[in-house]
Every structure is written in C-alpha cells, then in structure tokens.
Amino acid sequence: MKKDSKKSLNEETIRKSVRDFYTDIATGKKKARVNSDDLNKALGYSKEQLQEVPEEANMGLGCGNPHEKAKPVEGERVLDLGCGKGFDVFIAAKSVGKTGYVIGVDSSIDMVEKARLIGKKRKFDNVNFRLGEIEYLPVADNSMDIVISNCVINLSTQKEQVYREIFRVLKPGGRIGISDITQAKPLPQSVLDNPRMYGT
Ligand SMILES: C[S@@+](CC[C@H](N)C(=O)[O-])C[C@H]1O[C@@H](n2cnc3c(N)ncnc32)[C@H](O)[C@@H]1O
Questions:
Q1: For residue 50, what is the domain's CATH number?
Q2: Domain-located, residue 3
Q3: Residue to probe by mutation, ligand 1, list 29, 88, 106, 116, most atoms within 8 Å of CB
Q4: CA 38 to chain centre
Q5: Is the CB of 156 under 6 A from ligand 1?
Q6: Rounded Cα–Cα distance for residues 52 and 193 (Å)
Q7: Which of 53, 82, 135, 175 is most buried by a 10 A CB count?
Q8: Is residue 18 part of a domain?
Q9: Is residue 196 in a domain?
C-alpha cells in the first residue's frame, strides 16, 4: 500500500455517491446486509429500547448506541445527525417524553419522507424530520441539549465543519453522543478511487 494514497474523486462526486447509496436503501432498491435486530442487540441497545422503536425505522445501519453516552432525559431537546428512517430519533423521543423534542436531519429526501410517515403513523408528536446536510444544519444556534449521531460522520467529506455545526447548535453545557467508525490505517488507492465505496 502506498503511503501517499489520496482521494482522486471530488467532494461532489463523493456526496452524490453517498446520497444515491442511501436513497437506494430507503427505497428498498438496495437491502441492508444483516439481520438488523440481532445487530442492534450486539451494538448495545436494550430490549426495552428495541421494543419501543417502530420496527420499520430499524434498518440495521448503525454502528453503536449513541444514547449510552448522551443519556437523554425527560424534557430535553435532542438532534440526530443523519437520522435515516428515524431509528434513534424514536428511541430518544421516548426518553425525553412529551415535554422534550427530537429533531432528525438527513440528506436523503426518501429517508426523511419515510421517517415522517412512520412518526405520523405511530403517533409521535415530539419529533420533527428535516431535509439537510450535517455540514450545514437547518437548526438554530444554541438550541439543543444533546446531539447524537449513529454511523454518519464518517461519510462526510467535511468532518471539521460537522463539528463546528454541532458546537453552534448545542446550548452551553450540551452533550454529544456519537457512534461511528474510524480509520486505523490508510485505505488502498483502489478503494479511494471507487465512488461506490464511500457509502458502504
Ligand atoms: C449509515 S446510515 C445511518 C442511518 C441512521 N443513523 C441509523 O442508524 O439508522 C447514514 C445516513 O446518513 C445520511 N447521510 C449521509 N451523509 C449525510 C450528510 N452529509 N448530511 C446528512 N445526512 C447524511 C444518509 O442518507 C443515511 O440515512
């Protein structure tokens, strides 16, 4: 493996590839690869959390349990970055109760529309799903108690910008719960050059 491997693709190509990848999952064109209930148990979700979440929101796309660190409680305002069909939004909505509020942001309109439909059907009145990019959050300054995210920031081509946005929207003393994957060693050039590898 060459030490000086570099991304040959521009940011827009990568963003489009990621968007297309998750649009195909949202619309059912592409299937999630694992039994998602087994995966979520292995990732540390409790039986109660898995019982509370509408099963159609559970795509098995997470890589940890962001609630473990952030521990949302009654009355808090929570923001989920890259919410998909709302898996962690619905879990947080149960934790914060009727006096709290949870916002989910996702760049795929198909994910957002599906999450809204699930929320409406299951009568969640303390959730709100917004189309947007985590690099430019459609959320007011100093408005959230907690920001969570599950396996999304690794997909961003502008990770520092994502963290600037997290700190902009958090209230002073706010909390962050992020589950994600990190890169332990350089990726082969063949991976960096393949747009399809950026969503997986
Ligand atoms: C691996 S999935 C995780 C979905 C969700 N967190 C879950 O655990 O079910 C990644 C999600 O992030 C969204 N996404 C990817 N890049 C994004 C970006 N730059 N801004 C907002 N959403 C993004 C995708 O559309 C997809 O729904």
A1: 3.40.50.150
A2: no
A3: 106
A4: 19
A5: yes
A6: 41
A7: 82
A8: yes
A9: no
What is the extent of the structural domain holding 154?
A: 11-183
* Whether residue 145 has pLDDT greater than 60: yes
Tens of pLDDT along 89-118? 999 999 999 999 999 999 999 999 999 999
Res 34: pLDDT? 62
Is the residue at 197 inside a domain? no
pLDDT in tens, 18-58: 999 999 999 999 876 666 777 888 888 998 888 889 989 98
Number of domains the chain is built from: 1
d(CA 120, CA 1): 50
Q: Is 95 in the pocket of ligand 1 (CB under 6 A)?
A: no
Q: Is 178 in the pocket of ligand 1 (CB under 6 A)?
A: no
Question: Cα of 2 to ligand 1 centre, how many Å?
Answer: 30
Q: Is 36 a pocket residue for ligand 1 (Cβ < 6 Å)?
A: no
Above 80 in pLDDT, residue 68?
yes
Note the pLDDT of residue 195: 83
Q: What pLDDT, on a 0 to 100 scale, did the predictor assign at position 31?
A: 79
